[in-house]
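Appendix B, record 7
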Amino acid sequence: MADESAWFKSSYSNDTGGSCVEIADLNGKVGIRDSKDPHGPAFVLPVGSWSHFIRAVTIGEFGN
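Structure tokens (predicted):
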């Protein structure tokens, strides 16, 4: 999918196994994977959908 160097961890991830998310730029798409399983499945979104998701989370559009 992407070279290992393309993936970076979320700033909210930590080394104790909690919230381990990695993101990669996939030329117009965004790859999202679990850093604990780097060779497992990845979720892929168009950049626009990823941007909309981040915007919605940032403004609190998703309820608890």
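Remarks on this record: The longest strand covers residues 29-34. The first helix runs from residue 47 to 58.
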